[in-house]
């Protein structure tokens, strides 16, 4: 996502955060908290209001994850544990699940978390009338197709969800899905209180959740304040009084605020390009850098003339991929803080392999690239300029300057960068299908499975604005393999099928994998304990303390 998915993340500089500093002027907010144990964290302005099922980038995903507890939660290594759920029990072929809730859970408005808090929220997310960005995550639940039809009111419910009593509901699926008990840990599966449906727009500006923190305020393009939820009874042991997400549009300014230890900013999950050589030995910060789970890519829309999913388009995509020297970019631009991509997941993902059929398409080979481009030109001559769009506030400039220069040199084509000022504007252009060339993409996993990197990004169900398939790639053979994997009886069998699905992607290249970002970040010296980064390459917010 989110994010981030959080969905998105940006470079060694981390993707997702694309903010910019408010600078030293933020000091007033530090003194105003009266010495409270508040963690000031780096963020971008969320693309949308803070509604769980309409959040698929990290600007909204980070606060969302802290505001809403789901049926399961993940520890910092990605291990799942029941949280709101007492149990999630499958039938023999994993086509139906019975979910029982723990007693006593409440939203921060005092209303109870019930079975209907989940079933209504999931149905709202799945209903096409509501145009939620995470709609495709619910595509395997029975009744989803009925909620994609025209003429809906928006309150129709998924037929596969049945409330048994206040603390029990059942989920009927279209096919076996052994990953379902893990998938429900994603933000889009959060429960919602009844107040949401009365005014979703107002709710998105001041959300009511059930997580370790509760919402306090949102000063757009400046900050989002969360405070500790003293009624929270879940798996997290919150060590601070709150987290304030500060919006920065310049990651260098953010880093300097952390260096200054002036209270303006305490933690960021990225390192600006200009500091990647020095941050590990910088005595003014607490550094962190380890292998991570975020993949950085760029996407070429499947509808783009000369780059469609046909013979000419595949040749051009392969040529572009082979004309990029990933190791040189990692060495010269990222100062070694990444690993060249060999697949579409990450080295921390179950089932990862660096030797799949087609992985050679991700290796630098300038002569082969030129040969493939010439074959494509023999089908239909290309004389245009291939543009590469990215958000200018997230540190992506040196990456895409390098990509464009390499394509000019190694492939002999006309290429140019197209920086878009803010992450929000950039994502809006992607969402509205306004991109007329390649554009930066990346993925921060929502749950630890190859399925999250593959089905959610490249399936037909996630295309056309129904999910995170921003290039609208469609291949029925890929879809079928992913569905077979979801129905597999064990993880090893599932991962083998996901690898076969990846081999289709490595041929079609709906996106071009560049590298896996290290989980790299810094904290201020004011943070006394708990600074680390989790399986999503995000800071361990709940564990951090200044006392």
UniProtKB/TrEMBL annotation:
GO molecular function, one term: peptide transmembrane transporter activity
Pfam family, one: SBP_bac_5
Transit peptide as UniProt keyword: no
Cellular component terms per the entry's GO annotation: ATP-binding cassette (ABC) transporter complex; periplasmic space
Single Gene Ontology BP annotation: peptide transport
Coiled-coil regions, chain positions: none
Domain Solute-binding protein family: 82-462
Keywords: Signal
Signal sequence, renumbered to the chain: 1-28
Entry superkingdom: Bacteria
Listed CDD domains: PBP2_NikA_DppA_OppA_like (cd00995)
InterPro entries noted in UniProt: Peptide/Ni-bd, SBP_5, SBP_5_dom
Protein name in the entry: ABC transporter substrate-binding protein
